[in-house]
């Protein structure tokens, strides 16, 4: 018992010491470390890739890519094909990539550049923004669940709630302010369009999900994954599913995202100019499992330069929102009764955040 106490005490003080540097994982890399601190060590079980794919799963090579035709379909057949593709992807993978999505490639590059520039400015400047006060309009930290998760991830993040109440320009750092505002507006427009297609894929009126306010809130997380000296001992992001209705991910060329399907990890390949879309827990809940929110993770970065990504989550999160969400009435029947109890987004987010990224789905807690 005594040794257990010592080990856990050491971990607590190591976490505190790391957090108090206020420079995150980037600070460790800048210090030239060749071994990662023990707080970042994940168990080998969490890092393992299961046995090779069985022959009947070999056709599941990768998540689908869907052409959105610039969000203006020339004819109904193309629109129908896109909806059919989204319906299959949302039901089987919970993930798909979109091309010709209507967000300019120039803006995508500017957004990634803004993330890189913020994280690569001087430690003195970054320290000014570092905080664990989640009520802040702009938050920079390393690992939101640093003190509750079993192991820390090799990643730093800044975030802001961009809707329904966008931050004032002065709330955001000048180095990435304009591009955050521009990009979030574009993602909001894309999200509304995707919710129309998803509504139709469910056999509902195109406005159904937007009328339910699925596209009301937007949380932007801008991740920075520095090169890792011991990538086999840690992860960039632990296995988890998203506590949103829908997530829109802007990746860079460095791969690392993996999706878990039927117990196997699949790499998400780089598709130039594409955005990665995935179904969140809340959409699985309201569709009564018609669409699935699959678990995913990010491997530690083996490249020589930092990997960046921008994840935009359609959710109002822990902000006050009295609306109750349960399985959509039109999607349930005697043969297919509701599988989840009603919840507010805030209650779901609070439970999810308290649990941390521990590799289990928060949806289990809301099952009937």
Automatic annotation (TrEMBL):
GO terms for molecular function: dioxygenase activity; metal ion binding. Its cofactor is Fe cation. Keywords: Iron, Metal-binding, Oxidoreductase. PROSITE patterns: FE2OG_OXY. Pfam families: 2OG-FeII_Oxy, DIOX_N. Belongs to the iron/ascorbate-dependent oxidoreductase family. This is 1-aminocyclopropane-1-carboxylate oxidase-like protein 3. It comes from Cardamine amara subsp. amara.
């Amino acid at each position: 018992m005594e040794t257990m106490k010592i080990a856990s005490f050491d971990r607590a003080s190591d976490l505190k010491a790391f957090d108090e540097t206020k420079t995150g994982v980037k600070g460790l890399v800048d210090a030239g470390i060749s071994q990662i601190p023990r707080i970042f060590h994940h168990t080998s079980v969490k890092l393992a890739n299961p046995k090779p794919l069985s022959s009947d799963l070999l056709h599941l090579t990768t998540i689908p890519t869907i052409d959105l035709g610039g969000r203006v379909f020339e004819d109904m057949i193309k629109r129908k094909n896109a909806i059919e593709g989204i319906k299959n992807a949302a039901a089987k993978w919970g993930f798909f990539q979109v091309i010709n999505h209507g967000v300019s490639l120039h803006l995508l590059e500017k957004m990634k550049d803004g993330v890189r520039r913020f994280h690569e400015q001087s430690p003195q400047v970054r320290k000014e923004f570092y905080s664990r006060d989640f009520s802040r309009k702009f938050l920079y930290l390393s690992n939101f669940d640093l003190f509750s998760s079993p192991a820390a991830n090799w990643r730093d993040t800044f975030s802001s709630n961009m809707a329904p109440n966008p931050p004032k320009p002065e709330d955001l750092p000048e180095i990435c302010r304009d591009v955050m505002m521009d990009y979030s507006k574009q993602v909001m427009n894309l999200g509304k369009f995707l919710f129309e297609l998803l509504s139709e894929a469910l056999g509902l009126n195109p406005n159904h999900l937007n009328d339910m306010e699925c596209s009301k809130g937007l949380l932007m997380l801008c991740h920075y994954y520095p090169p890792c000296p011991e990538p086999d001992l840690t992860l960039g992001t632990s296995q988890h599913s998203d506590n949103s209705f829908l997530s829109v991910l802007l990746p860079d060329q460095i791969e690392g995202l993996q999706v878990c399907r039927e117990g196997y990890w699949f790499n998400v390949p780089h598709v130039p100019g594409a955005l990665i879309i995935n179904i969140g827990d809340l959409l699985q809940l309201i569709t009564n499992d018609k669409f699935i929110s699959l678990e995913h993770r990010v491997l530690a970065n083996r490249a020589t330069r930092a990997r960046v990504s921008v994840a935009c989550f359609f959710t109002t999160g822990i902000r006050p929102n009295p609306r109750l969400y349960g399985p959509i009435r039109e999607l349930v029947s005697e043969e297919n009764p509701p599988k989840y109890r009603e919840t507010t987004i805030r209650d779901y987010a609070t439970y999810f955040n308290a649990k941390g990224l521990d590799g289990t789905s928060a949806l289990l807690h809301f099952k009937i």
